[in-house]
Amino acid sequence: MAPRTLVPDSALAGLREDLAGEVLVPDDPGYDAARTVFNGMIDRRPAVVAQCATPEDVANAVLFGREAGLPVAVRGGGHSVAGTALNDGGLVVDLRRMHAVVADPEHMTVRVGGGATMAHLDRACQPFHVAVTGGRASTTGVGGFALGGGSGWLERRFGLACDNLLSAELVTAGGRHVHADAEENPELFWALHGGGGNFGVVTSLTLRVHELPEFCFALLMFTPDAGPDAVRAYRDVFDAPAPDAAGGAVLCLTAPPEDFVPPELVGTPVYVVLTTYAGPEEELREVVAPLLALGPAATVVTEIPYADFQCMLDDPPGQRNYWSAEYLAAFPDEAVERFCARAADMPVPTGTQHLVFPMGGRVADGPSAYPLPWRTAPWAVHPFGVWEDPADDERAIRWVRDVRADMRSWAIGAVYLNFIGSEGADRVAAGLGAENARRLAGVKAAYDPENVFRFNHNIVPAA
């Protein structure tokens, strides 16, 4: 157990008086629930959790932490695989009470509270048949997702989430409230398109939304012997290229006990070829025709509300997680063979997934000025280790790293930082691009010169 940082009762009383939300310390009921995040490997004990309800709460909490000499972490969705929402013996600024989402279909925008999850965002937009690119799980926090770039099922059609960022409200390390958009604080606004939570606590975002009257998907399941042919066919569909409305992934996983899964496949390794489509089902069927011709072991092709689809791949919280990724300049047959060989080598069958995503479309065509050098890659491989027993930690982590090593011949070096954990400063710099990293360090120096917000993929302030 980490040493407990003692905070004077008088200081805590002052913080409780200043906050409309709640303040929790280790002896309080609800403290253990407040320090639980998605990744069950993370077990940290902050000295204080400030559950903020307003931007003023956030400012008061940040100033309290600095005056008390506490390291400051910020929690939105708590979905980071590295557990960056928590620290040991410090302050956590918990935004989850600030989850309001207001869609404005007249102006095609949505205003999102800093603690909102994808479920909050998608459900608010669904009645108006509008959407913006969201994460691939409904439990992901919108703030960290969008500020880190924002890659999701709709990205080929609507661009990355940060491409649709119109403005942000944030609280700086000095407790100052700042607005950023293309006209006001434009350098900070640029930095928020991939630079993550380095520059302040973002209390709300305004995003552009797009019409989405129809959404559908095709889920085709293949046995391991048919998997390599299915992966090659899927690659060829998107390299053709596929329409921008199409997205998806190939997932290698253990077949779940669902109605559409043949009983003999439940609990066995399978390939799931998933194609999403921002449009009508008949167009989707044209796109996946080469895959249907392969005779999958199970087939689902259907329309579905996008918000419902977003919940389909949710993993339960509390399992042990380790993820990484490589973005590829190409996905040739040799890379497919290595991908499939490593799928057969997945060490823990319970929740581990082995994914390859098609990129391109509006991702590649999006704004080139933002610090997202990976956006031009046509493919991404994302080993997603999920397991239950701590005894499996070493082999599960090694498997994820082996997948990265397998793909190195085609990797561009740059990587979407939201897909990785703590892999070192060099990996962060590669994820941002060298020139971008230097520019971001200048923005960091202007807004957080003492590196108060450092529990993230950290950008060190320029000297």
Sum this structure up briefly.
The chain has 463 residues and is of the alpha+beta class. The protein has helices at residues 9-18, 31-34, 55-67, 118-125, 142-147, 155-158, 186-191, 227-239, 281-287, 289-292, 306-309, 333-343, 393-407, 425-432, 434-447, and strands at residues 22-24, 48-51, 72-75, 91-94, 101-104, 109-113, 130-131, 165-171, 177-181, 201-208, 210-211, 216-222, 246-254, 269-277, 298-303, 320-323, 326-328, 353-358, 379-387.
Main attributes of the structure:
about 25% helix; about 475 residues; alpha+beta; 5-stranded antiparallel β-sheet; 8-stranded antiparallel β-sheet
Characterization of the model:
The protein is α+β, with helices and mostly antiparallel strands and 463 residues long. It contains 15 helices and 19 strands. The chain has helices at residues 9-18, 31-34, 55-67, 118-125, 142-147, 155-158, 186-191, 227-239, 281-287, 289-292, 306-309, 333-343, 393-407, 425-432, 434-447; strands at residues 22-24, 48-51, 72-75, 91-94, 101-104, 109-113, 130-131, 165-171, 177-181, 201-208, 210-211, 216-222, 246-254, 269-277, 298-303, 320-323, 326-328, 353-358, 379-387. Strands 12, 13, 14, 15, 16, 17, 18 and 19 form an 8-stranded antiparallel sheet that branches. Strands 5-6-10-8-9 form a 5-stranded antiparallel sheet. A hairpin with a 4-residue loop joins strand 5 and strand 6. It is globular, with a radius of gyration of 22 Å. The two termini are 35 Å apart. The mean pLDDT is 95.
